[in-house]
Amino acid sequence: RLRAISTDLGFANSNGAYKRNPEAFVGNFGDFMKIVRIAVCGKNQSPDMFAIRSVLGHEEFVRRTSLHAL
């Protein structure tokens, strides 16, 4: 789901695609996940986002990222 959302927002769906044509994208999936990490944790560095999502639960994760609006 996160990868699909990132692609809809203009991020590359793979590092290879981004490296081949960086001008076509706003960033890669890693760049997108940095944004999500800051939205969820308030920090640039944190534990694995998928582990954090498991701890927080789906509803809290969505609330913190406002991904339900996309």
Descriptive account of the structure:
- With 70 residues, the chain is mainly α.
- The protein is built from five helices and no strands.
- The protein has helices at residues 2-8, 15-20, 29-41, 49-56, 58-65.
- Helix 4 crosses helix 5 (58-65).
In brief:
The chain is an all-alpha fold. The longest helix is centred in the middle third of the chain and has 13 residues.
Give the key terms:
single chain; 70 residues; mainly alpha; elongated
Unreliable stretches covering 5 or more consecutive residues: none
The share of residues in extended strands comes to: under 5%
Largest sheet: none
Q: Structural class, from helix and strand content? A: mainly alpha
Level of helix content? 55-70%
Distance between the termini: 11 Å
Rounded average pLDDT: 88
Describe the global form: elongated
Rg, Å, rounded? 13 Å
- H/E element string? HHHHH
Multimeric organization: single chain
Total helices: the number is 5
How many E-type strands? Answer: 0
